[in-house]
Amino acid sequence: MTLLLAAGCGTPPPAAPADLSATDLAFVDLVIPQNESALAALALAANRPGSALRPVAAQVEDRYRAELAHVRELLARTGRQESDQHEGHDMPGMITAAELTAVGFAEGAAFDQQLTVLLRTQFEEARTVARAELSSGTSRPVLDLGARIDSTRAEFLALLGDAPKSP
Length: 167
Hints:
- The chain has six helices and no strands.
- By secondary structure, it is mainly α.
């Protein structure tokens, strides 16, 4: 009984993930800005009356936020700091401020078409990066995240295909 009380009433502490390999860390460091840029794009759709992408944004936004929280928790549990090594980079899967501005000026169907291209690229690149983690990563929690991202982005791509067209 005393041993159980000393150990926190029998509830084991959450297991800390194994230390992150270079691949795991690179993946986690990329998930954060990819998700943040996707959230900025989704906010455009969510706030655009008449956008055919509003339902897509509503369905995927919370999942992106949950992934961000999970990644940050993984970093914290391994004693790692969040890196901003990709800040300002123009690379596949990252939706840039200039791209967001250009889409923001588009109207009607052009808005939805341009934003669909950006989101499709982001979803596809996120799958590519997740698959790289799955083939070379070592940390079970990060590998699980990679598998979830690969799966959810396939779902998100299907949502884009199912989105109604703007008038």
